[in-house]
Design brief:
The protein has 452 residues and is of the alpha/beta class. Helix content is 32%, strand content 24%. The strands form 5 sheets. Strands 1, 2, 3, 4, 5, 6 and 16 form a 7-stranded mixed β-sheet that branches. A 6-stranded antiparallel β-sheet has the order 17-18-21-20-19-22, with helices on both faces. Bound molecules: NADPH dihydro-nicotinamide-adenine-dinucleotide phosphate.
């Protein structure tokens, strides 16, 4: 049987674009890709990239004070949201152009339309055109979800935050995950009076307790009103403000309320039910370790499969798919020991097991140090950082590394190599310190602070 294409990719985000261009560019496969929105997906258009640029923008607020403490005679001016927003969106346009060109230059044919599956080898575009392909790859990502409660339609999500008409005077951010905690820092840094509600006992559930405790403490020190054990009961419009009633009985007005209470897979109306593709409890597409669905010609990668929802993971899954299907080299995606960073202020970089997870698994030693770093301390800041290693008593391997510090994202990428290689505590100790740095503490931790 002959097909229009060897591969049809649905979704032009990080995972889909990578798989399409590598399949076309490196294996000569005939590839098409359909994208209904902007190329680059969540990461480039409404996620990692604009978020990180906003983190950078927000960090300048403290720099003037620090520079003054170092002897500079400078004064802070005002932040212009309009000026920043203009540059931000121009940058996103530029990046989207790059994504489009990458596809074009690798010979991928793209369709700026929604596509859905008709059968195991056929997709239908929005205009009714049908295309056949030997393989179909679903890489449609995810989207934010807001729970249903009275007034929930007044909330914005991370999709809208980059498009605010003006910077609000006050914002309520609901949620305690990556997105809520990162945006609390961003908004606070930009001068917005920021409140964060989290329903549980401590933000960043699932991460190392000591590390998330420090992040939360520092966020409060920085001026964010972090309310733990608190959720929204009800909201309504009051003039140009939003009236919010909280579970603790408090009633307050905010200019903007942003919900960051998780994301769901974009797997509805894709025709999956027609061909019997299984979906999980959260609506995600169920795949095996080669990203193959129960229908052999259909694969899925990235957030739509809700495995580890991070851009570099989606890219890895896309590459493994191409290896498996187009290069005849069956390749499973390795989801073990993925380093990650949460761009809170301070940043939090982590790889491997938290102290709590490791202690459940086996006897461990915990090495940790928390201190005021030289640069901030000289400027009179009280901010502390944390360097922490979790070590197996039996194998001496470093099971987890947790860093809360400015630049922790950069540090954890490198520490991640050692941990992934299976480095022991003694390997860390054999490495000579780079002095004076914050991360040198990772190789000079002499005695465990506790065992468990
Ligand atoms: P998360 O799943 O990380 O966090 C959701 C948060 O919302 C949790 O604190 C959760 O609480 C809370 N929540 C869930 N439902 C409700 C509800 N009904 N009412 C109140 N609170 C609720 O989601 P995010 O949206 O923050 O991020 C999604 C994913 O995106 C992340 O998991 C991550 O994979 C990725 N991401 C990665 C980034 C990075 O690498 N730096 C940055 C941004 C996103 P509870 O803990 O109690 O369940």
């Amino acid at each position: 049987m002959s097909f229009d294409y060897d591969l049809f990719v649905i979704g032009g985000g990080s995972g889909g674009v990578r798989a399409a261009r590598v399949a076309a560019g490196e294996t000569g496969a005939k590839v098409a890709l359909a994208e209904e929105d902007r190329y680059g997906g969540t990461c480039v258009i409404r996620g990692c990239v604009p978020k990180k640029l906003m983190v950078f923008a927000s960090e300048y607020s403290g720099m003037v004070e620090d520079a003054q403490a170092y002897g500079w005679d400078i004064q802070a001016g005002d932040f212009s949201w309009d000026a920043f927003k203009g540059k931000l969106h121009a940058e996103l346009d530029r990046l989207e152009g790059i994504y489009r060109n990458l596809l074009k230059n690798s010979g991928v044919e793209s369709f700026d339309q929604r596509a859905k599956l008709v059968d195991a080898h056929t997709v239908e575009l929005n205009d009714g055109t049908r295309k056949t392909a030997k393989h179909i790859l679903i890489a449609t990502g995810g989207r934010p979800t807001v729970p249903n409660f009275p007034g929930s339609d007044l909330a914005i999500t991370s999709n809208e935050i980059f498009h605010l008409e003006k910077l609000p005077e006050s914002i309520l951010i609901v949620g305690g995950g990556y997105i809520a905690s990162e945006f609390a820092g961003i908004m606070n840094g930009l001068g917005v009076k920021t409140t964060q509600f989290y329903r549980g006992a401590q933000i960043l559930r699932g991460f190392d307790d000591e590390a998330r405790g420090l992040v939360s403490e520092e966020m409060c020190q920085n001026g964010i009103d972090v309310r733990l054990g608190t959720n929204v009961l009800e909201m309504r419009k009051e003039g140009d403000k939003i009236w919010v009633k909280a579970t603790n009985g408090e009633e307050r007005l905010f200019d903007v309320v942003m919900y960051a209470t998780g994301r769901v897979a974009n797997a509805d109306d894709l025709g999956l039910e027609n061909i019997g593709i299984e979906r999980g409890r959260k609506g995600q597409i169920i795949v095996d370790e080669y990203s193959q669905t129960g229908v052999p010609s259909v694969y899925a990668i990235g957030d739509v499969t809700d495995r580890v929802n991070l851009t570099p993971v989606a890219i890895r899954e896309g590459m493994a798919f191409v290896e498996t299907v187009f290069k005849g080299n069956p390749t499973k995606v390795d989801h073990e020991l993925i380093p990650t960073a949460i761009f809170t202020q301070p940043e939090f970089g982590t790889v491997g097991l938290s102290e709590e997870e490791a202690a459940e698994q086996e006897p461990i030693e915990v090495y940790a140090t928390s201190f005021k770093p030289m640069q901030q301390s000289f400027a009179g800041r009280a901010a502390r950082v944390l360097m922490k290693l979790i070590v197996s008593q039996k194998t001496r391997k470093v099971l987890g590394c947790h860093i809360v510090a400015p630049g922790a994202g950069e540090m954890i990428q490198l520490a991640g190599i050692a941990v992934k290689m299976g480095a022991t505590k003694e390997d860390f100790d054999r490495t000579v310190a780079v002095h004076p740095t914050m991360s040198e503490e990772l190789v000079t931790l002499k005695t465990p602070v506790r065992t468990a």
